[in-house]
Amino acid sequence: MVISDTQSGLAMAIAVAMTESALFPPVVPLVSRNRYFTRKKLLKKLEANGNGARINALLDSMRASSPTRRPTDTEDHNSWILHHPSALNMFEEIMRASKGKQIVVFLDYDGTLSPIVEDPDRAFITTEMREAVRDVAKLFPTAIVSGRCRAKVYNFVRLSELYYAGSHGMDIKGPAKGHTHRKGNQTVLCQPAREFLPMIDEVYKALMENVKYIPGAKVENNKFCLSVHYRCVEEKKWGELGDQVKLVIKDYPQLRLTQGRKVLEIRPTIKWDKGNALEFLLESLGYAESDDVLPVYIGDDRTDEDAFRVLRERGQGLGILVSKTPKETNASYSLQEPSEASYAVPQTFGGVEEAVRTKALE
Ligand SMILES: *[C@@H]1O[C@H](CO)[C@@H](O)[C@H](O)[C@H]1NC(C)=O
Ligand SMILES: *[C@@H]1O[C@H](CO)[C@@H](O)[C@H](O)[C@H]1NC(C)=O
Ligand SMILES: [Mg+2]
């Protein structure tokens, strides 16, 4: 995939909108990107027709949400990096916005704190990243909000002072240790999809059975929801995988299918997502209707958009999308993944810490 001039132009427009220093810059619709995908879809359609293969909306959408090729045009890529505000600059702005307010930090796990790796069981957090999160949690109430099973995320992160919201926020638990930040409810536990547990288990077994013939497909049981990973599935098999998943869940109208980066997610139809988790946690911290709070949410995927949207609707806080390329988003800011191995967040929070220290010295 080569980023077109139009796209890098848009990147500049977004960067300019973001450096306007408004906390809520307008969402810039990425019209040209959509056009790009439309053209890509059309090409795929032609290809598929040539092979006599079946075309379906799910497959198109799997392709669109999981580009397999990286940008190769270094010059355009550099211009995107150049025209994005640096994490440090941004955090100076955040510190200004946070004057007199309690910052509460929400972090997605996969792709934000850990790299996207082939085997989702090996998406380990680096020691530096863990230290960075630990340092942040000393300053602010901090929550990890992930699509994964809560216990699994905890096993990766292993910081008992954090809030953990697993299964896309459907399984929330407060810190095990006493927490000095909290001024609201002392016991935080929320499992709004508890009644779906037996159904999720049943569907997990059916999915395992149905996709075991597709090399590389991996079903993950996240307790209140399921993930079907296709990071290691050949692209020509994506259609078959999508069909198998749809075949299983068609008998379960109480479950719905959503998507992320190289993953299909099956979850209860209840209206509860990462956005609700964010609101629930703010409420438990005693900031339900408060103006004295600045929630900061960092995430990289579609499911994080629910949280970005909540922040936008509240007219409060900062949504930060981790992405190398321009994407349509309700986040106000973006961070890049500097490389596959080292992530943006430690630097960013290095910035927060420095700003807090500077402020303390003032
Ligand atoms: C604290 O939260 C729990 C779970 O949400 C709830 O059952 C309980 O009534 C709350 N207690 C107080 C004092 O608000
Ligand atoms: C951003 O929010 C608007 C309004 O809620 C919604 O219609 C749109 O789909 C959201 N965009 C993304 C990328 O989620
Ligand atoms: Mg993620």
Automatic annotation (TrEMBL):
NCBIfam families registered for this protein in UniProt: HAD-SF-IIB (TIGR01484), T6PP (TIGR00685)
InterPro entries recorded: HAD-like_sf, HAD-SF_hydro_IIB, HAD_sf, OTSB-like, Trehalose_PPase
Names of the cofactor(s): a divalent metal cation
GO molecular function annotation: trehalose-phosphatase activity
Protein name: Trehalose 6-phosphate phosphatase
Pfam family, one: Trehalose_PPase
Swiss-Prot/TrEMBL keywords: Hydrolase, Membrane, Stress response, Transmembrane, Transmembrane helix
Organism field: Sesamum alatum
Purpose of the protein: Removes the phosphate from trehalose 6-phosphate to produce free trehalose. Trehalose accumulation in plant may improve abiotic stress tolerance.
Keyword Repeat applies: no
